[in-house]
Q: What sequence folds into this?
């Protein structure tokens, strides 16, 4: 870190605040020792004090044991409460550790690591987890390391690993995933992207999956990163978009050297040719056909697709596709309603930043940041670039308003990958979380201002300006890591959105949101038509008092990650009636009035 | 770099001042390495020097320069070096501004603002304040705009003023004014990608779809020509086609287009049109010294030695250009004279270079070759040793000296010289094999 002639007031304030928080955490237990334990025990389940699930179970123990454990629990819980997000992975049974299978040959495939996501695979109303892993690379010690993907089933707040029995313990070099019901049988399927053939897991409904990528025609053999499902051709079933990064092969791995240190380093994307993305059109009966070129996708060596989202960006009733490319013009494929696309990235203003530069696009967050009921885009980028906010002005016009909302400077030193817009404090506006980490080990020696391990970030939306609140969020956002995937979901159904973070060669983290608030919220689970029962691509506009909120059911998104398919609205102090207008993926609309808040509600599509 | 330019001026970019002491020589090595684009070497030299002389302010300054240069530049290391320099020279506003710029590059806007405030007034500091306002504090756009206008009155480059004013007016939602300035910026510099893109955005938002599309096409073609993003710059036939189209769209007379076109025509071997363009450009006063040097290289490649000489002369005689450019031009003129068989003029140019640029490795190298050709082996040896001392990475020079030793039967010295080569090279390897070292 460089020094400055004097510490700026803002920085000093941040430091003081951090010290204050740290002090509060340390002394909190003694402050509370005088509190009557019995009243505390009885108050716990009702109060806003959040305690880890495993500790809650201990309260059920009888007699003195219970008393002693509760004393311990209170001692532990209070300091934890000072942090907004707490890594509960270990205590809820998540022991996954990513392994990129490196051998020292600096294979470029190692740089993207792997993602993960929230999936309710058993449709029981709570979120399960899937985490993607790497694989041994040529020259690595396969006897020591045989990483595989894992599936954790959420069983009453405890995660149990079932990948082998479920048939999803893939051992290919894994990247990311996206989910949706591809065969219209009412069960959630998912696609896993790989370096090499992708996997499509068809949910059999009995806890097992069948891998059908090859027979379905979606396996491919490229280096796939992110994917998204959605009905692009208006026939009701889900089609599939897969970003292909670049043409990396082990056998032609280039050798790149940092001459200053005379050390081998990872090459740059410029050292490889790009590969066109794929658009698989669902033919029904569980088969797909790749039609990217004929349907208007850009072809050529400059396409280095990383992130993708499908959403109705021009609000004309069909799904458009936005692709973040690495170091090249992003793509905004505008749907003609029949699944044929025209790239309007350049003309719309969403393809290049305000300076007209193509940035190193990584992940994509979609959401209505500006509160005008139009989905905006925030793209994560490489270090020494900003993350970029493209405000949707309507009429297929986007404006780079990064500096206006203040997300530029906080992002400059970080390499951003996973990115989500979510309302972590239930105040009604969308906040931003980022998974950061450099791809070049030893970057500190090449550029001391940068770090290989970087803290993830939480930016709180305060009246339209984003403020970095990572220090208040807790160690999960201050301890440097090499993160990649980031997904959002309410794993314990408490109305506060949690996060799943995947890290390179390190454990994944389930970050439980313990932000104290008495604000209201609403969760919606949309039940779509049989061909798309999870309503992937649906949009909900919510009106309550003066609030206008919008959320979108998104398959994929962020970077190689899958977030909760349910929709979450923070409502602040609002407690009256809430009106929602659902824009179903088939273009029909449905209005509902909701009277009961602070819970998840299922809304089924009405028959015409 | 253009191949012909490299052939003609391969060691030309040597900016050197002062000579004599070991301290000077050590720092001159750093400067030479920097001038030759060898930032990695400059960093090594300066680090070695600073280990022995940690209180040499100038070395810290040069170290900062070295870390701000090259592909693997490191602004934070540059800042570290410059901060050390400023402990010795706290009133150096120029360096204070450079620290602010480096912090700006790093995205450390808060610290950059502190340092730019410390730098006080001045065109560069003002410019940086504007950039800070644009990227870090949009609320201050109006204030920044005033600064730009003041800077214009103080003589800041009109192109820069228009480009910045366009962005600031856009930030203030004054689209018409923003567009006016963007248009003026493009008129002055048709390769101004940022203003072209901004104009396109403003036209699009104003509903002028056709104009916006045209500007965006121009922007994309320009991006390809200059190699924006991860796309390599276009060269060859496709580039020529695009340049012609762009020139028609924007301003066919713009120097930037003619220069890019002649570069590509020469690459394609289209001599006729390239020569015509070169002839037209000789008298163009808008050309910068760097452009004229490049054109000299192109003319040389097309065997138009008279044109090459004219471009080089114009640089060498230009009192306003840098010593580095003049030195480069003089090297070019010497090599040109040699190529045309004008030995007297060749020697005259080299002698002139030795007097004006006594620590330029290239002139000593050329002097060594001349003396070798004249059979003055001792003198040649001394000149080559001096050249190698100044540019130890120069393989040609090392091998020339090795040949002198070899001819004298000084085999141990040949071996030592070859072993001391600072890095691997195919030429050195071939030499070893050929002579059994």
A:
């Amino acid at each position: 870190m460089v020094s400055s002639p004097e510490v700026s007031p803002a920085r000093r304030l941040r430091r003081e605040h951090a010290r204050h928080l740290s002090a509060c955490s340390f002394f909190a237990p003694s402050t509370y020792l005088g509190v009557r334990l019995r009243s505390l025990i009885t108050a716990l389940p009702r109060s806003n004090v959040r305690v880890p699930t495993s500790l809650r179970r201990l309260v059920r123990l009888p007699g003195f044991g219970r008393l002693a454990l509760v004393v311990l629990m209170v001692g532990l819980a209070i300091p934890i409460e000072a942090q907004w997000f707490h890594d509960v992975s270990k205590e809820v049974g998540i022991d996954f550790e990513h392994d990129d299978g490196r051998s020292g040959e600096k294979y470029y495939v190692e740089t993207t690591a792997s993602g993960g996501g929230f999936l309710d695979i058993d449709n029981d109303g709570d979120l399960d987890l899937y985490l993607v892993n790497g694989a041994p690379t040529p020259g690595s010690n396969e006897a020591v390391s045989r990483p595989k993907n894992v599936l954790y089933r959420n069983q009453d707040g405890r995660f149990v690993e079932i990948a082998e029995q479920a048939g999803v313990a893939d051992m290919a070099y894994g990247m990311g995933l996206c989910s949706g019901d591809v065969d219209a049988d009412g069960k959630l399927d998912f696609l896993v992207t790989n370096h090499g053939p992708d996997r499509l897991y068809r949910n059999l409904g009995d806890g097992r999956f069948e891998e059908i990528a090859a027979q379905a025609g979606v396996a491919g053999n490229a280096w796939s990163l992110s994917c998204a499902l959605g009905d692009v051709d208006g026939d009701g079933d889900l089609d599939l978009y897969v970003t292909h990064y670049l043409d990396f092969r082990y056998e032609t791995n280039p050798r790149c050297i940092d001459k200053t240190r005379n050390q081998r380093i990872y090459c740059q994307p410029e050292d490889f040719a790009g590969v066109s993305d794929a658009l698989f059109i669902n033919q029904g009966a569980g088969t797909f056909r790749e039609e990217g070129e004929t349907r208007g996708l850009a072809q050529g060596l400059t396409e280095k697709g990383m992130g993708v989202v499908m959403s109705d960006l021009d609000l004309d009733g069909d799904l458009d596709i936005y692709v973040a490319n690495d170091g090249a013009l992003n793509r905004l494929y505008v749907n003609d309603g029949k699944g044929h696309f025209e790239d309007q990235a350049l003309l719309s203003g969403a393809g290049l930043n305000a300076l007209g530069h193509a940035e190193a696009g990584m992940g994509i967050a979609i959401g209505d940041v500006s509160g005008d009921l139009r989905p905006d885009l925030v793209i994560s980028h490489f270090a020494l670039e900003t993350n970029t906010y493209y405000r949707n002005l309507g009429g297929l016009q986007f404006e780079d308003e990064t500096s206006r909302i203040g997300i530029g400077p906080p992002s400059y030193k970080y390499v951003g990958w996973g990115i989500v817009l979510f309302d972590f404090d239930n105040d009604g506006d969308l906040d931003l979380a980022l998974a950061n980490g450099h791809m070049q080990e030893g970057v500190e020696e090449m550029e001391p201002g940068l770090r290989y391990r970087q803290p993830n970030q939480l930016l709180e939306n305060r009246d339209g300006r984003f403020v970095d609140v990572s220090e208040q969020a807790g160690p999960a956002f201050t301890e440097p890591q090499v993160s990649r995937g980031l997904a959002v979901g309410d794993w314990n159904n408490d109305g506060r959105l949690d996060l799943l973070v995947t890290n390179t060669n390190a454990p994944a983290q389930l970050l439980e949101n313990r932000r104290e608030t008495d604000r209201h919220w609403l969760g919606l689970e949309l039940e779509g038509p049989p061909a798309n029962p999870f309503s992937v691509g649906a949009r909900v506009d919510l009106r309550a008092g003066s609030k206008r909120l919008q959320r979108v059911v998104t398959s994929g998104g962020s970077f190689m990650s899958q977030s909760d398919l349910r929709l979450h609205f923070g409502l602040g102090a609002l407690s009256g009636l809430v009106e929602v207008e659902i824009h179903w993926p088939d273009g029909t609309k449905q209005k509902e009035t909701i009277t009961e808040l602070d819970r998840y509600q299922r809304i089924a599509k009405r028959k015409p | 770099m253009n191949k012909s330019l490299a052939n003609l001026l391969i060691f030309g970019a040597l900016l050197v001042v002062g000579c004599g002491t070991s301290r000077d020589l050590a720092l001159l090595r750093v400067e030479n390495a920097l001038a030759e684009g060898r930032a990695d070497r400059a960093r090594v030299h300066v680090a070695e020097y600073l280990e022995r002389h940690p209180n040499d302010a100038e070395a810290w300054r040069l170290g900062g320069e070295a870390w701000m240069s090259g592909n693997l530049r490191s602004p934070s290391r540059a800042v570290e070096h410059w901060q050390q320099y400023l402990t010795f020279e706290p009133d150096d506003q120029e360096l204070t501004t450079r620290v602010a710029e480096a912090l700006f590059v790093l995205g450390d806007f808060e610290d950059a603002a502190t340092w730019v405030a410390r730098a006080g007034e001045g065109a560069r500091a003002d410019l940086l304040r504007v950039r800070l306002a644009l990227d870090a504090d949009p609320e201050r756009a109006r204030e920044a705009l005033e600064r730009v206008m003041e800077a214009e009155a103080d003589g800041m480059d009109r192109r820069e003023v228009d480009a910045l004013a366009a962005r600031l007016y856009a930030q203030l939602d004054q689209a018409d004014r923003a567009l006016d300035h963007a248009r003026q910026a493009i008129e002055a510099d048709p390769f101004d990608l940022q203003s072209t893109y901004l104009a396109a955005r403003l036209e699009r938002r104003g509903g002028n779809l056709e104009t916006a599309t045209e500007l965006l096409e121009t922007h994309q073609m320009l991006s390809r020509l200059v190699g924006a993003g991860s796309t390599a710059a276009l060269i060859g036939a496709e580039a020529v086609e695009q340049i012609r189209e762009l020139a028609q769209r924007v301003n066919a007379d713009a120097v930037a287009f003619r220069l890019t076109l002649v570069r590509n025509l020469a690459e394609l071997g289209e001599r006729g049109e390239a020569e015509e363009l070169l002839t037209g450009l000789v008298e163009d006063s808008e050309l910068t010294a760097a452009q004229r040097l490049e054109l000299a290289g192109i003319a040389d490649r097309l065997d138009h030695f008279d044109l090459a000489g004219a471009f080089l002369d114009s640089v060498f005689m230009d009192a306003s250009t840098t010593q580095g450019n003049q030195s480069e031009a003089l090297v070019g003129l010497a090599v040109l004279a040699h190529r045309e068989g004008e030995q007297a003029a060749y020697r005259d140019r080299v002698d002139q270079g030795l007097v004006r640029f006594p620590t330029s490795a290239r002139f000593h190298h050329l002097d060594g070759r001349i003396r070798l050709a004249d059979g003055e082996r001792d003198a040649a040896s001394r000149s080559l040793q001096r050249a190698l001392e100044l540019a130890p990475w120069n393989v040609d020079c090392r091998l020339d000296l090795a040949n002198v030793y070899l001819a004298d039967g000084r085999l141990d010295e040949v071996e030592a010289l070859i072993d001391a080569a600072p890095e691997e090279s195919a030429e050195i390897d071939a030499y070893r094999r050929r002579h059994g070292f």
